[in-house]
Amino acid sequence: MQPILTPDEMAAVDAGAPESIEELIDRAGRAVARVALEMLGGSYGRVVRVIVGKGNNGNDGRVAAGILRSRGVNVEIIDAALAPAALPAADLVIDAAYGTGFRGAWDAPDVGTSPVLAVDIPSGVDALTGTISGSVIAADRTVTFQALAPGLLFGAGAERAGTIDVVDIGLDVSAATCHRVDRADVGAWWPERPFDAHKWQGAVRVVAGSEGMSGAAALAAEAAARAGAGLVKLSAPGLMVACRPEIVQTLLSAEDWSAEVLAEADRFGSLAIGPGLGRGHGTLQSVRACVASAPQPVVVDGDGLFALAHADGGAAGVLAGRSHPTVLTPHDGEFRELTGSLPGPDRVAAARELAAHLECTVLLKGPTTVVANPRGAALVVDHGDERLATAGSGDVLTGIIAAGLARGLDPLRSAAAAAWLHAEAGALLPRRGMLAGDLASTLPMALAGVLSSQWK
Predict the structure, then answer these.
(1) Boundary (domain end) residue, out of 174, 204, 221
(2) Does residue 326 carry a pLDDT above 60?
(3) Concatenated DSSP letters of 377-418
(4) pLDDT classification of 389: cutoffs 50, 70, 90
(5) Tell me: the pLDDT tens digits for 188-238?
(6) Residue 337, CB half-sphere, CA atoms under 13 Å: how many?
(7) Structural domain includes residue 3
(8) Looking at residue 345, which CATH number applies to its domain?
(9) Where are the beta strands (DSSP E) in 181-222?
(10) How many Cα neighbours within 13 Å face the side chain of 14?
(11) Do 354 and 265 sit in the same domain of this protein?
């Protein structure tokens, strides 16, 4: 996992370093120069323009400029405060104007089609939230030091950062409580089925679907099965669902069905509840009863979240008596239902606050997904793209999370690994024409690629 530190946290790390600030700047500048030479593909006769500010970020750029000059590069240093409206073409522009501590707006020069390397973060991006004000030079590549800033992973910051290099310059970031998830993490976490497994090991119960929304139930159930559940039992209150023949189905009463679900709940490793269930009074009451009393980990999505949000006492009242893990998977609108307001620009803080308030694990969906637990640990998944923005995609994610929970994976890692696998399944598909059902179909390939990477 790659550590993620807020600007204040990174400033504290810098201040606590045993090395002098001059030594750290020298290390950072040398790292910038190395990446610049990679991008240039050579040195002698190349033209590089380095935009520098007055702070440490600018000093990193000045060190890099000196090293590049010593290698035969034609370097021009440009004061960020005096930069012209447009720069002549160059083989590379290094943006070392303003770093993670910058606040306000910057009137960035137009660099045309010149390739751009940003130092720490593209100047003008809010390092905490990824929001921007004023103009920002989009980078082809960003080199940052020891840890990622949240602003490199969220919003406009993620769009403008390009490829990100995290360089070790000897700082101690071991106290970080937020991390970015990568392929190796998922491969290490996701449980393999033992050679002597039987179908009831890691069995998943899915309660989802209603008239006109039966597809949500089928998607969640198939995803759970393909993600490793030995058996998936699906019930959509009042109807049978057209789905894979391997999915076991039982018919529930149309209204008050919680007792039917809870009667056999202890046979299953997890319960997934909510996708497409509808919002009838009996359904809402049954969801609340099931979530409050289920004797296993539960993942709640869709209409299940609505049921919790609108219970007497809100979601906190329903979850107060639970002794097993709970994962909630809101998108922004569902987050507002649960809290009364949309998540703020600091999405990591928003997920953490809700997780702490409800004493559960929260997966806050978005272009960059945040998973947080009540103790303040957070995992960030930035692997997905626009292919996941399709109807039913969230139902597939619910099924994957349920499979991880049923196999004994802790809720923070189960939710984060599921989000990464969900994105990986999408990445294996064409950018146009993909449907949510295709995600479930490519899950085995996503899993195979991740699990096989452990042995490389």
Answers:
(1) 174
(2) yes
(3) -EEEE----GGG-STTHHHHHHHHHHHHHHTT--HHHHHHHH
(4) confident
(5) 999 877 766 666 788 999 999 999 999 999 999 999 999 999 899 999 999
(6) 19
(7) no
(8) 3.40.1190.20
(9) 204-207
(10) 20
(11) yes
The H helix count followed by the E strand count for the chain is 15, 17
Is residue 383 within 8 A of residue 348, CB to CB? The reply is no
Token output for 236: 């959509």
Q: What does DSSP say about strands 369-372 and 361-364: parallel, antiparallel, or unpaired?
A: antiparallel
Q: How confident is the model at residue 133 (pLDDT cuts 50, 70, 90)?
A: confident
Count of residues in the chain:
456
Q: Please provide the DSSP assignment of 164-186 as one string.
A: EEEE--S---TT--EEE--HHHH
3 state DSSP class of 4: strand
Query: The domain containing residue 359 runs over which residues?
Result: 183-455
- How far is residue 235's CA from residue 264's CA, in Å, rounded to a whole number? 13
- Edge to edge, what strands does the sheet with 361-364 contain? 2-4, 178-180, 378-381, 369-372, 361-364, 326-328, 298-300, 270-273, 204-207, 232-235, 248-249
| CB-based burial, 234-273: b 16+ in 10 Å, e otherwise | bbbbbbebebeeebebeebeeeebbebbbeebeebbbbbb
The Cα–Cα gap between 62 and 37 comes to 15
CA distance 18 to 276: 56
List, for residues 80-110, the tens digit of each pLDDT value.
999 999 999 999 999 999 988 888 788 899 9
Q: Does pLDDT of 455 surpass 70?
A: no
Q: Are 191 and 269 in contact (CB under 8 A)?
A: no
Mean pLDDT of the chain: 94
Give φ, ψ of 392 to 5 degrees. Answer: 95, -10
